[in-house]
UniProtKB/TrEMBL annotation:
Record field: compositional bias (Basic and acidic residues): 307-317
Domain Transglutaminase-like: 184-254
Domain of life: Bacteria
Region (Disordered): 307-338
Protein name: Transglutaminase
Pfam families xref list: Bact_transglu_N, Transglut_core
Length: 338
């Protein structure tokens, strides 16, 4: 069993030419994977075309890598390309039963006028409602379908993940980026962002800290088909705080706990904190950008590039066929009279 996998991740966002230039734009990018104990970042970079902007790198309030893109030169069309090389290392996952009862964790996070550890204070940031994740009784009732009295915290988190995975349908047409959590709960349809928000909302509604994880997932092509470049997408999942173990992750869209197939960009309270690209544009026309994502094992990528270079070299070396000699024009012949 492999203990690590090296990946190349390419994320491209392209605003096509529209004939009306943008005069000013400010963008906030979360496109560089976070360096973690289980995720080693060998390299990462962002380029833009046309190259008329300024890139400033730093960290956001959650410690995620962030890039500010400023463009004050008129431009028609924009391509933002991020390329990263990371190695994901296998993690040891605790047994669901190896965690305290969920009620004791809820009680530990109730307000007490006393000093708290740094870990506790960090976890509290993910305990309350946020712009896209509400807390209320209806969501608490949904959570209690999985969190029965006295159940171990991690067993309850897995049960909630399984509940969403088994009773909700993945449907890219059912929701939009701003669809409320309660609509997802009612329709029982949505995408990874919806299911992550729903699981987080349910956990917080019963007093448990949970955060939104943003990144990528290695997908498999259809049997017998090659992996396509640009055919993947961003992914979202959930992390739950557990005393003694820290943050434990769950993917309700796929019903699994993230391991070697998940690449982490960063985390926040909800999607709004770690959106891959958002900003403000002055000028241009209303446009929907085209997003192309490639997640590929590095060994496969190297082999693919070698095959492509070989094919290109053979095409250049192949002699071009000579154009056929031009035949002399036929003499004019008068048609016989009637």
């Amino acid at each position: 069993m492999s203990q690590s996998v090296a990946y190349i991740v390419i994320h491209e966002t392209e605003y096509p030419h529209c004939g009306v230039p943008v005069s000013l734009a400010q963008h906030l990018l979360h496109l560089i994977p976070r360096a973690l104990p289980h995720q080693l970042r060998a390299s990462a970079g962002i380029t833009i075309a046309p190259d008329v902007g300024r890139l400033t790198h730093g960290e956001d309030a959650f410690g995620n890598p962030v890039t500010w893109l400023s463009l004050d030169t008129p431009h028609d069309g924009l391509l933002v390309r991020a390329e990263s090389h990371v190695t994901v290392v296998r993690r040891a996952l605790p047994a669901p039963a190896d965690s305290p009862p969920w009620e004791s964790v809820r009680e530990a996070f109730m307000y007490r006028p006393e000093p708290h550890s740094r870990e506790r204070l960090d976890a509290e940031r993910y305990l309350y409602a946020s712009p896209r994740v509400p807390r209320d009784a209806a969501l608490a009732d949904f959570a209690r379908q999985a969190f029965t009295p006295g159940l171990a915290l991690l067993a309850g988190a897995k049960a909630l993940m399984d509940l969403i995975f088994k009773t909700f349908t993945f449907d890219a047409e059912a929701t939009e980026v701003n669809t409320p959590v309660h609509d997802v709960l009612k329709r029982k349809r949505g995408v990874c962002q919806d299911f992550a928000h729903l699981m987080i909302a349910a956990l917080r509604s019963i007093g448990l800290p949970a955060r939104y994880m943003s990144g990528y997932l290695l997908t498999d092509p259809p049997p017998g088909k090659p992996r396509l470049v640009g055919a993947d997408a961003s992914h979202a999942w959930v992390a739950v705080w557990c005393p003694g173990h820290g943050w434990i992750e769950y993917d309700p869209t796929n019903g699994i706990q993230p391991d070697l197939r998940h690449v982490t960009l960063g985390w926040g309270r909800d999607f709004q904190d770690v959106s891959p690209l958002r900003g403000v544009i002055l000028g241009g026309l209303a446009q929907t950008p085209e997003v192309r994502v490639t997640v590929m094992p590095e060994a496969e990528w190297v082999e693919r590039q070698a095959q492509l270079e070989k094919a290109q070299a053979e095409a250049r070396a192949k002699p071009r066929a000579k154009a056929p000699a031009k035949l002399p024009a036929a003499p004019d012949v008068e048609a016989p009279e009637g």
